[in-house]
Hints:
Elements: E1 9-13, E2 20-24, E3 31-34, H1 37-54
Antiparallel strand pairs: 1-2, 2-3
Amino acid sequence: MSHKAQATLVIERDPETGWYVGCIAELPGCYSQAPDVEQLRRNMQEALECYLAVYEGEGPWPEFIGTEPIEVPQ
């Protein structure tokens, strides 16, 4: 099974806990969290490896295009 050589890690900070939350943009459900960014990167690498271990290869990965600001109603 062939995969992309690179994926997109999106990192956010939870406002309630202060922890970092990460997800792989191209892989729905592939996410983790950690108290610091370095630990989050390690956790995300493990999450990605686990995801790929069960990924059945049903079609290509979605292509991450980018982020764009959008107005939030107040």
